[in-house]
């Protein structure tokens, strides 16, 4: 059965998070809370784990996976970002937004979109997840925890553990998180003078980025 890590939402126990990181380093997959909904995460450089992440979610290689980064400077290391894009990113990080950008050489090619060479990136505003990222020291590969037979994400740790007990190694329980996925915005056209493109309206408000719906 998947291990359950019950942590304090504001002062998570480092001992438990270190145990969770150890599972990630072994190539395992975790279910973790974010500032939008639960997500599935794994080590960025583990191909087998990334393939399993896609299988659990029921998506192919054309579905944008997301890199969860600690801060904007780390995000910028994994994407090609110009001044216009950076200004918009600064407004939305940390927060419930996923930005699609051209992947840098730091991103394994197998993880970027096969045709566009793009990747999703975000900086979550969730204390427990931020602590996990700090202990892990590199971005985590992630996807919103939406079951293949459903349209909405999951956010109850006990239910997630029961449903995915044989598919994930652990579930971090810091209490219920919001039940709404991130807002996804494609910024790649901005590099050629274009405008941001809304891909999915989620928890993040467009007005906070100076954009209109």
Key terms:
10 strands; DHBP synthase; alpha/beta; 213 residues; single chain; 20% strand; 6 helices
Provide an overview of this structure.
By secondary structure, the protein is α/β, with parallel strands linked by helices. The chain has a single domain (3-209), classed as DHBP synthase (Alpha-Beta Complex). The protein contains six helices and ten strands. The chain has a ten-stranded mixed β-sheet with strand order 1-8-2-3-7-4-6-5-9-10, with helices on both faces. A hairpin with a 6-residue loop joins strand 2 (30-32) and strand 3. Helix 1 (14-25) crosses helix 5. The longest helix is centred in the N-terminal third of the chain and has 12 residues, at 14-25. It is globular and about 50 Å long. The N and C termini lie far apart (43 Å). The model has no long low-confidence stretch (mean pLDDT 93).
Q: What's the CATH first level?
A: Alpha Beta
CATH architecture: Alpha-Beta Complex
Kindly estimate the percentage of residues that lie in beta strands according to DSSP. Answer: 15-25%
Share of helical residues = 25-40%
Structural class: alpha/beta
Mean pLDDT: 93
- What's the gyration radius in Å? 16 Å
**Termini, distance in Å?**
43 Å
Q: Helix-strand pattern, N to C? A: EHEEHEHHEEHEHEEE
> pLDDT below 50 for ≥5 consecutive residues: which ranges?
none
CATH superfamily: DHBP synthase
Q: What overall geometry do the principal axes of the alpha carbons give?
A: globular
